[in-house]
Design a protein that fits this description.
Strand order of the largest sheet: 9-10-14-13-12-11
Number of domains: 2
Strand content: 15-25%
Structural class: alpha/beta
Distance between the termini: 57 Å
Helix content: 25-40%
Largest sheet: 6 strands, antiparallel
């Protein structure tokens, strides 16, 4: 029995239980909520809100208030100082780091129990993927994750990426399927990291490529052309180029895996020769069965470029709706980006999109949703987030048995996320205002937007009230970048990893924004309802303005 067949057999009972649960979403949700309440009734949070006396969903909604990260931050701060039994009874193994709307990173507690619940969802994802792609494990898995450890709390608990944490703790049964050793993801120089990934992967028989954001896959494909000659020579000699900027310890671990492979080097040279010198993944990895990544929202622009590198025959399956806070859906086919609500792993409430700001808003349950409607998601998770407004909007695209099939639509706040950076309008506002104050620039108005290219970047439309030298305009742009890095940890990561390009300043004539407002009034908009965004999500918004000057850092 090969490993794919063994995995399907192993996950079968879990899938059968899940299928049964999807027929009775209300009962499934009642059971998972009761489990959370029972486990955590004697925690600080559980005692405060009377978990012991909660015997129904209605009790829970009546007793426990709606929360968000800022309302839970004091409890999480206690956990980071080493206190226990605060939100859950479980020991915190890791704090997953993600961007927060207020400029401070969010630290999401990860416990053994919450990790198991997320693994259950991932096992179900794998079950359905393997049923459709039984050759998925015929070769190696090229997975790309972020490092688990970006730092430590004062009590020596690591904080960083949960994907890195999961990678480091892979079960022994599947660990050897993954081609890249975890240490590669701890390399801080991104050019060196990408070189090492390709140095190992180009020599290997890859049957699946897996990473959350397709921009990472596209960037790797683009890197091949630049470094292929050096990598092929390394493969021939069984070496790792001395030019690669990595620590001696990591270099030693990588080099211990390498052996001279002149046969593979010749194969790659011949593949490139037939393509007129170009080396493409479609030729390099002919047994590639599946690409696993996000497919929805703004990342679709990256997917459209995959055909050049992978052809149009390789299947692409969405990872589902997931975040540091929760893994919440399970795609059961390659089509689209929707998935079945993970009904047995979290407790969910849903607020109709246009009721969120109303006093009489409704908190609906999974079985009460309607196909085609959009909702805010309110999470209760095994990691201790209770009635947590994650500020995500989902759309119901149908039902699997009686359980909703959902897809992510957008963040509720004004936010841009083309590579996972999640830049919020308030962060743009704070960064630009701080930068302008530092150099003494008087701004009439400004608006940021994403400028698409082979590597996307943020562009800033700026109207100055005072004359500013080119030198000071460059300084303004540099300070905007510095402030954004301070405010948004994920923007910083995406810039350093080269998935986002350097920002650009686009200077517009004085009076440009007022002229735009006047035009909108003439088109029939009420003057009081026209709000010029600090962060434009309309891809064509910038076309309303003449650009006098473009400033690059």
């Amino acid at each position: 029995m090969n490993i794919a067949s063994y995995a399907v057999k192993t996950y079968f009972l879990k899938a059968k239980s899940f299928e049964r649960a999807t027929k009775d979403p209300l009962g499934s949700q009642e059971r998972i909520l009761a489990e959370f309440m029972r486990r955590n009734k004697d925690t600080t949070y559980g005692r405060k809100y009377g978990f012991t006396d909660i015997h129904s969903i209605a009790d829970y909604q009546r007793r426990v208030p709606l929360s968000n990260y800022e309302t839970l931050r004091p409890y999480i701060d206690c956990l980071m100082r080493g206190e226990s039994n605060t939100l859950t009874i479980d020991k915190t193994l890791l704090f997953g780091v993600t961007s927060g709307t207020m400029g401070k990173p969010k630290y999401i507690p990860v416990t053994e129990y919450s990790r198991k619940k997320k693994k259950d969802v991932m096992d179900l994802w794998a079950y359905y993927a393997l049923k459709d792609h039984p050759r998925l494990f015929d070769g190696k898995i090229l997975a790309i994750v972020s490092p688990e450890r970006e730092g430590f709390t004062i009590t020596n608990v690591p904080f960083g990426s949960e994907s890195g944490h999961a990678y480091r703790n892979l079960p022994r049964l599947v660990r050897d399927l993954y081609v890249i050793p975890y240490e590669v993801f701890e390399i801080t120089d991104y050019d060196a990291k990408y070189y090492c990934i390709l140095r190992i992967a180009m020599e290997s028989n890859i049957s699946t490529v897996a990473t959350l954001n397709p921009s990472t896959i596209l960037l790797l494909c683009q890197k091949i052309e630049k470094i292929k000659d050096e990598v092929i020579e390394d493969i021939r000699r069984g070496t790792l180029s001395g030019k690669v900027n990595i620590s001696g310890e990591i270099r030693k671990k990588i080099e211990s895996r390498l052996r001279p492979n002149p046969k593979r080097a010749d194969e790659l040279l011949e593949i490139a020769r037939k393509r007129g010198g170009e080396l493409l993944p479609i030729d390099m990895w002919p047994n590639l069965e599946l690409i696993e990544c996000w497919k929805g929202g703004s990342v679709g622009v990256y997917i459209s470029h995959f055909v050049k590198y992978f052809g149009d025959k390789v299947a692409i399956r969405d990872f589902g709706y997931l975040s540091s806070e929760a893994r919440a859906s399970i795609p059961v086919c390659d089509t689209g980006c929707c998935g079945v609500l993970a009904i047995t792993s979290n407790f969910y409430e849903f607020v109709p999109r246009y009721e969120m700001e109303r006093q009489d808003r409704r908190f609906l349950l999974a079985h009460q949703l309607n196909t085609g409607e959009e909702y805010y998601v309110i999470l209760t998770t095994p990691g201790g987030l209770y009635r947590y407004n994650i500020d995500d909007i989902i759309r119901v695209t149908g039902f699997y048995n009686n359980t909703p099939i959902i897809e992510f639509v957008q963040k509720g706040s004004i936010v841009s996320s083309v590579t996972g950076e999640k830049v919020y309008e308030m962060q743009i506002n704070e960064a630009v205002n701080r930068a302008a104050e530092l150099i003494g620039a008087d701004l009439q108005f400004y608006s940021a937007f994403v400028e698409w290219g082979s590597v996307p970047r943020y562009a800033f439309l700026v109207e100055f009230m005072n004359d500013l030298s080119r030198e000071n305009k460059v300084a303004l742009l540099k300070h905007i970048e510095i402030e954004l890095v301070k405010l948004n940890v994920e923007y910083d990561v995406k810039r350093r990893s080269q998935r986002l390009g350097s920002p650009v300043l686009k200077v517009v004539p004085q009076g440009a924004f007022e002229a735009y407002r006047s035009k909108r009034v003439c088109q029939g908009c009420h003057d009081g309802q026209i709000k010029i965004p600090k962060l434009a999500t309309d891809a064509r918004f910038h076309e309303n303005f003449k650009i006098l000057e473009e400033i690059n850092a």
